[in-house]
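Recall the central idea of this unit: under ordinary conditions, the amino acid sequence of a chain determines the structure it adopts. In this exercise we apply that idea directly, starting from the sequence alone.
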Amino acid sequence: MKNLSQAEEIDEIRTLVRKSGLRSTSARITVIQFLRQATSPLTHAEIAEDLTPLGFDKATVYRNLIDLADAGLVKRTELGDHAWRFELRNPDEPEDAQHPHFVCTECGSVSCLHDVDLKPSQNKQWSQVGTVTEILLKGICHECEDN
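Accordingly, the structure predicted from this sequence is:
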């Protein structure tokens, strides 16, 4: 991400939100700023925990996450635990671009595996199964292995 001043970042986000067809509100700008700083997909509860002290109630945060996901600015993913997680979508990637996620079965931490490129083999089994839309890897993270 570029090094922008606070005012430049807000202007950039305003433009991005407006281009998506949404009104540029303080809640949407704040949600996007928060997701820009995140290193992994976050649940609504995790995001609201940090944004409610700033004056945004949980319902407002949730509505804005859904609006931003519907507009294609945010990805909404369910990683097998029945909780939606949200992450900022890279505007330079196609809207349907996906990357794998790793979920620790011990602590529940989630990691994005952006630089992992998993390509289907030319094997006929892929076509027999269907279209793969998401890849989720589960295991034990290094932190839990060390404990």
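The chain has a mean pLDDT of 85.
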